[in-house]
Amino acid sequence: MTGSSEPNAAGNTGRKLPQYIAALAASGGALAAGTFLGWTSPAEIPLVHQQEYGFPINAEEFSWIGSIANFGAALMCFPIGILMKKIGRKWAMLLLVLPLLVGWLLIIFASNVAMLMVGRFLLGSGGGAFCITGPTYTAEISDASIRGALGMFFQLFITIGILFGYVVGAAVNVQVLSIICVVIPVAFGLIFFFMPESPQYFIEKNRVEEASKSLIWLRGSHYDERDEIKELQAEDAKMRAEKISFVQCFQQRATIRALIVSLGLVFFHQMSGINAVIFYTTTIFDDANAGIEASTATIIVGVIQVVATLLATIIVDKVGRRILLMISDFFMAVSTILLAVYFQLKETDETQVENLGWLPVLALCLFIATFSIGYGPIPWLMIGELFANNVKAYVGPLGGAFSWLLAFLVTKVFTNLRDALGISGAFWLFSGISLVGTVFVFFIVPETKGISLVEIQRMLSGGKVRPTRGHDNPAMECDEKVESR
Q1: pLDDT at residue 299 greater than cutoff 60
Q2: Radius of gyration from C-alpha coordinates of the chain
Q3: Looking at the whole model, is its pTM more than 0.70?
């Protein structure tokens, strides 16, 4: 982030600092998305048990308040892709400030449950759309040498936003928390207004002069952007030539296998119980009688999430995707087993856990840490790697919608699971799913570290790829042997 430079194809240099600035500004949308995810945990007890807003809210109603944001996010996955193509990445992101602003205002001035639910739905719509626009914008403005690092900003800022909700929620009441949260999307809009549009969008619209100005802003005034403009034009022409229909997309073997892998990763990502843990962290610690303030324990969990996500950005290209996913899922299973055992003992006889208040703290910290180094960021990274460019427009929104719908299901059903099975039964279920997920990664998920995008498509089609360290996938290897006969 010091403005260092490297030569382009023509021998000119481009600065990196402007790209960091633009990516950080875009990540303000992730911060806004993180705050609505983190809001639920500190809000549940004050709203449900203390009736802080002056009207009754039961547990079932709050489960809808907590989960309906995910439903709003799922619904926005498809229209936001169209909007980005019509008005551009920048203006689509700026337009998302409106639902976030209205959503927070409805929550701040809520006088009934319906206002809270509509507000949360709008927050989910805006925040969920940011999860598509933000990474797209960042990838398109970034030089290849720093694209991976800048791409991880989004997940990092989501975790910071969740932590922000935990910390502020521990210090103020729910209404004040909501007032503070509404400042974030407004600040994002004011800052991001001065950032450039994606040069790729301008090329798509045949606005070459504006694409040049955007690249000069991003790479510096001494950068000769002509070679990069030619590359973007060539890629755009190739995309138009290779354009296929929605039906043709799902007739390709590589696409089908990539879809199985990516949707499987998204499924195990959400069904691990991560959203239940994030949304109800305070309640879990309160139920556990851990010996420390539930809000303090929640903040500790949030800090661990941020630190572990930061660690993942550093090691993912060195260690590899598969090994991090397997470690992540296995230890998530271990941590939810520990939680299940603790709560089962507590449900049987509370005296058995009088001296075990540290156990749920340890288990949740382990869960969040191992989730954040693997199943948190890597599924989204691999979705970007597994699909060919000419099918991403179809499968990208599909993966996003599937993820948010599962998040809605888990968040909504967690309260019902807790009532039907007991909190121990819910965590036994999550642990079983995580163990199955570990097996899924071992047998189905390929290692993409160090493999070019062209080779990944060849591998998914059944062809051989050059050997890489860590590319020991039994399923792929068997398939390659069959294809080679």
Answers
A1: yes
A2: 23
A3: yes
